[in-house]
Amino acid sequence: MRLRDAVVVVTGASSGVGRATALQCAGRGARVVLAARNAPQLGEVARECRRRGGEGYAVPTDVADERAVRDLAMAAVARFGGIDVWVNAAGMGIPAGLEQAPGRDLRRLLGVNVLGAVHGARAAVPIMQRQGRGVVIDVASLLGTAVEARFVGGYAMSTAALVTFDEVLREELASVGEHRIAVCTVLPGGPRTPVVRPAVRRSGRAPWRPVSARPSECVARAVVRTAVRPRSRVLVGRYARPLHAVHAPPLAAVRRGSLWTAGRRVGRAAAMLVVRAAARHRMRA
Fold it and tell me: Looking at the domain assignment, is residue 36 inside a domain?
């Protein structure tokens, strides 16, 4: 896909990875729809997008609100006629361990990090199906899937859920023969620094092993490459690939193992049915 004149929706666009992604897309001539709660910062990003040669259209949005996300999608279609790429980059962290984190904060975190992406996909996929094409990109992290998560358990839990959501969405689309929409998960080798910085300040320690948390611009470059050439999983960072290889067995192997196990269970069940039928036949005889 060429990004020039493509319509790219980016959530979390007021700062961090979302902002960097929006600016890099604009630099390639994309028409970028910017979503976040902070309207003044969105306006600044929109102006910077225009300075870089693209278009920037700010739509203040709380991604935890499903209706607001649907309105965001409709605003993109009304303004530019469609949606080519949807990037879920909105995220937050809680500066406390799971035992100390208030329930209200945990619900908000899951609402933004997980349900925000779910809302985005549910809003974007039907539009992409009508168009016959599209790319959905979720920015997650290896934190919670392959990296020890201390002091930021809520964030790690949400990224693990996001990875699972993407796998399920890919399978559901494939099951109905929809292969024109790519669902991509970008996995930096460490957490996004702006999201977890409060936890570092409070604890005085880094909440992960030293796996090189990637600068926002580096992760954004991976997002842009994924929009141009979609892949299911994109690892970002020097140590991301070996960590992922060690902690996450290849999905195809897991599927083959599951099918083999299921086949054995079915085979045993069928054998038992045959044995029981033979026993009943002998009793009648």
Answer: yes
Q: How far apart are CA 211 and CA 154, in angstroms?
A: 19
Q: What is the pLDDT of residues 146-188, one digit of tens each?
A: 555 666 788 888 999 999 999 999 999 999 999 999 999 999 8
Q: Would you call 239 a catalytic residue per the annotation?
A: no
Q: What is the pTM of this model?
A: 0.79
Residue 2 belongs to some domain of the structure: no
Q: How far is CA 63 from CA 50, 87, 99, 203, 222, in A?
A: 24, 12, 26, 28, 22
- The catalytic position among 155, 196, 211, 237 is 155
Tell me if 47 sits within 8 A of 56, measured CB to CB: yes
Residues 111 and 126 in one domain: yes
Residue 9 phi/psi, 5° resolution? -95, 130
Identify which of 137, 154, 149, 166 has the alpha carbon closest to the alpha carbon of residue 213: 149
Q: Per the domain annotation, does 1 fall within a domain?
A: no
